[in-house]
Design brief:
Structural class: mainly alpha
Number of helices: 11
Protein name: Acyl carrier protein phosphodiesterase
Distance between the termini: 25 Å
Shape: globular
Radius of gyration: 16 Å
InterPro entries: ACP_PD (IPR007431)
Largest sheet: none
Order of helices and strands: HHHHHHHHHHH
Keywords: Hydrolase, Lipid biosynthesis, Lipid metabolism
Pfam families: ACP_PD
Number of domains: 1
Helix content: over 70%
């Protein structure tokens, strides 16, 4: 899953949210210096990724893209799924998306000192272009995919993936909706077990 889903699947716990958000910028076990609940957020992130990568519905979405994008197809599906979460946000949260996102950006700024360097580098771009809010529209997803393609030096061809999303929009949305219900249940169980340790 991509950024918005990881933030959402932290269930409102600020320290878990931080770890769950920036876990991809932490290698191996180089997180032991961080506060306990942030460490648990990193572990929750990894559990979510493992569950997603193995899930037949997420794999079905990925398989639809594999011919054109090879191993990048999973990354693209993560971005698509964040789009559907943002687009259908009112089905999942009573807090308006713009308010939710602003609260998250405030959380990052309040905890800037403990963020990994890669997260600090990404933050200005994320906030200036308001990635999380703009996931809700296709123009925002198109910008994200173009940015990802540039970061792969155009090898991924992810800039074309907006066309695949438009062509198979209903299939991807149905797969997301089905999968995300299961992911929420799984993540909540993991959240509870981690917080009990």
């Amino acid at each position: 899953m991509n950024f918005l889903a990881h933030i959402y699947l932290s269930f409102g716990d600020e320290e878990i949210t931080l770890g769950n958000f920036f876990a991809d910028h932490i290698r191996g076990n180089k997180y032991k210096h961080l506060p306990d609940r942030i460490q648990k957020g990193i572990l929750l992130h990894r559990e979510i990724d493992t569950f997603t990568d193995a899930h037949p519905t997420a794999r079905q979405s990925s398989k639809r893209l594999h011919k054109n994008y090879s191993h990048y197809s999973r990354v693209i599906v993560d971005i698509y799924y964040d789009h559907f979460l943002a687009k259908n946000w009112t089905d999942y949260s009573d807090v308006p998306l713009d308010e939710y996102v602003e609260n998250f950006y405030d959380l990052l700024e309040d905890n800037y000192d403990i963020l990994p360097i890669a997260t600090k580098r990404m933050m200005p771009y994320m906030m200036a272009d308001n990635w999380l809010l703009n996931y809700a529209n296709l123009a925002g997803i198109d910008r994200v995919l173009n940015g990802m393609n540039r970061r792969t030096k155009n090898r991924s061809r992810m800039n074309f993936a907006i066309l695949d999303l438009e062509e198979h929009y209903t299939e991807f949305e149905n797969e997301f909706t089905s999968f995300f219900e299961e992911l929420m249940t799984f993540s909540n169980q993991k959240f509870i077990s981690l917080c009990e340790d």
